[in-house]
Structures are given as C-alpha cells and as structure tokens.
Specification:
alpha+beta; two-stranded antiparallel ribbon; 6 helices
Amino acid sequence: MSEHVTEEGLGQPEEPETQPQPNSIMEGLRKKHQSLKSKKTLDLPIPGYDGALVAKYRLIGLKELEVIGNKVQREFKGLGERQKYASIDAIILACEGLYYNRDGKLVGLSESISDDEPPIKYDPRLVEFLNLDIETGFDDDIGPARRTVLALFGGDEHDIAILDHSNSIGRWSSDTSKQVGEAFLVES
C-alpha cells in the first residue's frame, strides 16, 4: 500500500482500487442477457391521443418483415407508398392489443366490452369502438386493417406519424432492454 498526502498533510494509506471480480462481471452480463430474453413486448402510445391510447407490440422477426416487404413491393410502385404500407403492415402484425391508459394503468379496450373478449387490435372492433370512418378518403384495395391504422392515426396527412411509430418499434426491437424514449429517441 502506498501513502498519499491529504489536505491535512498527514500520510494516509491509499485504498486499493476495487476491480470488478470476474464472477460479478459474469453475473451482470447474465442478468442483462436474461432481461433481453424476457422483454418481449413494448407499450407504445399512439400519436395524437395524449398518451391515453397505447398499443402493445411484440417482436417481429426478419422473415416476417421479408414477407411484408415482398408483398408491399408487389402491390405498390412508389418508394413512399412502399415505406408507408410496409410500416402499416409491420404495425398491424406486431400489435398484440390496444389499451386505454387510466392513470398509468393499462386497461384493454376489449375489457370494456367483456372480460373474456380477446384484445382489440387494428380490426373491425376498433373501428366500431372508436367510431372510425375507414371508408371515406381511402382506397378500397388497401384492405380494412390498413384503413383502420390510417384512420386511427388521422388519415393520409399523418403519414409521418405512422412511419415514426413504426420506426420506434424497430428501434426498440434492436435493443429491447431500453424503453421507448430512453437513449434512442431524439430529444427536443
């Protein structure tokens, strides 16, 4: 042990620096790995609803994204349309349910209908529940689920909100140990 001089000028034995022990490093990494494996869903607020409407999303794999990409490439010519509808299809596929945020507690929209009702997703029940107009201003050939997402997000003029929402799911999927807004969303 070496000595160093303190403010009082007295020599005090220097405390040895504590290095992380191999077991604590290993345990820490194991805990992080378990956390990564166990975090399977993301609760993400729907833009425009002031945090009151929240979607629960699951991880989706590359094969599922490839199927979406191939389908959208066949359906649409323009890059912008492909991006928009690939984002919408990923949002639809990843959704496990929609919830109402009641003072920080998520309550399934389906629970207001019946206790044994499956979760409401981007489906006809949501259209009825929120009285969404999915007919006016939308192409018939894009399908009801896509029209539901578009209507929920405020229509075609809110394309960027849809892309941003989908991108948030993608960023979370790349590191499920982080919450949305933590370290990967741009702060204003």
